Amino acid sequence: MDTVPSWLPTDLDLVSSDWSHPMLYPCDSLLRLPSELLLQIAEYLCRDSLYQLTLTCSCLCKIAEDCLYREIFIPKYGGWTDKRERISIFHLNRTLSESPRLGSIVKTLDIVIDSFHVEVPVTASGILPYARTISANTTVRIRVPFVAGSLLLSMPAVETLSIALRYGNRGYPPYNYVHDSFQELFGKEFDPEASNSILMNALGHVKSLNFEGLQFHWVLAKLPSLEHLTLNRSCRILPDQSPLEVSASIKSLTLPCFSSVLIRGSERYKTCAPFLQHLPFLQTVKIPIRDVPDNIDEEGLEGFEMVNEQRQGSFSVLLEGLKCAASTLKVIDLGLDDDQARYDFLSYALPGGPFTPFWSLKVLKAPYEALLGPEDPSGLLGHPPMEDVLPESLEVLEIHCPVLRILSWLYNFLWHRDRLPRLKRIVLHCRSDRGDSYVEFAYHSYPHPVFNGFRRAGISIELRYLNGDWQCDWDDYDVQMTKMLEWFQSLGDPYRGSVFAPRFGGDPDVSKWGHYVIW
């Protein structure tokens, strides 16, 4: 669905309950189709056409309303919420209050809530009964959370909710900002430490929650139907007074963090482990780690920590917090998926130790340092064997920013294939700014015996690179040419050639194109 406001006003006086108009006679057979099929057909119509559909008959009006109100994405007009977005929240709330049936249709809502006010037009009699008209443009100022709270209460069937809480003046929010915001949303009687029937009634059917804010509280994760929880940015998890409460429904968690999550005793993440204790039935956890604060003017630099040469971190700190769900976790994703971020903190991060306690783990995505630690220039640092680091249940291993030495580590595993009987696939994600590049793995190290060895063992190895790292010269590379050059060399006549052909006018200076020369 597009982002055009879906709360279009409907003139119900124009909606006919029958097909009395002669121009509608040819469409009489349309109503004989099942309503589910009509709904699928209506989904292909644009918003304007759906609005016209509401003006035909009551049956098609309901079909059009299902399309219009099932997914609501309030338009975002810029990087920061402005008054147009705030007034959209008010208009939507007014539409749903006048037609409560529409609120029960909404299944998906994407909304941004800030601490500003919204000016809404009212009549003088709406403020003072029997008052004379003061002005045609009389307005009142209402806090956006107050309007948004009324809006959420009018949508009892929402299953996918994306909500962003933003502090209005872009300064660092007060410590109790989330508490105050939810008191405005759901009333002064709201208490995050108590059992809140208001919150459960408003969001009781939410299965997927995407939250963006500087602070997060456990109360939002207690929704009875919640299965997928995604935090869209690194935020402070506020302490709670319910350490024994758990959520049996949450199966997936996305928790962005700064590198300070790897520092034992970090002030920022001291509540992270207690929060994870609430989620012992997790099956998938994704923890992207990056040290580029979003909206740094909001975040504030006071007390900001990061892993560097003065402050060493360890992935074992993070894994200790996840051990509460060791028996249920199937996917652990610590991947470096942001192609714009730099991951310098990995040079000062120790490995996380064995992943064997996660005996149900099937997919592991992690940087090279999380498995083997920072690269040792001397090459004297011994690494534990692969079969001692990974659990027997593992099926897919994805390693980000590897170095060439990992090929030897993988090759040694072939002698102990029976220790990881379910392993089927290994993916090496190469970056030009960290670890060894894709060229080193795909060209310079080829043919490494690990590739043929894993192929015979029934394990596939994939090499991947960032789209921004791609070079046009790679299209000219041919594996068969390497074999041909080896055959020429076997004839005894010294041969010097290139696996790439000079391009752009046949410039003989092939070195400036980064070509690999075989001797």
UniProtKB/TrEMBL annotation:
InterPro entries: F-box-like_dom_sf, F-box_dom. SUPFAM superfamilies: F-box domain. PROSITE patterns: FBOX. Pfam families: F-box-like (PF12937). Residues 27-72 form the F-box domain. This is F-box domain-containing protein. The lineage of its organism: Eukaryota, Fungi, Dikarya, Ascomycota, Pezizomycotina.
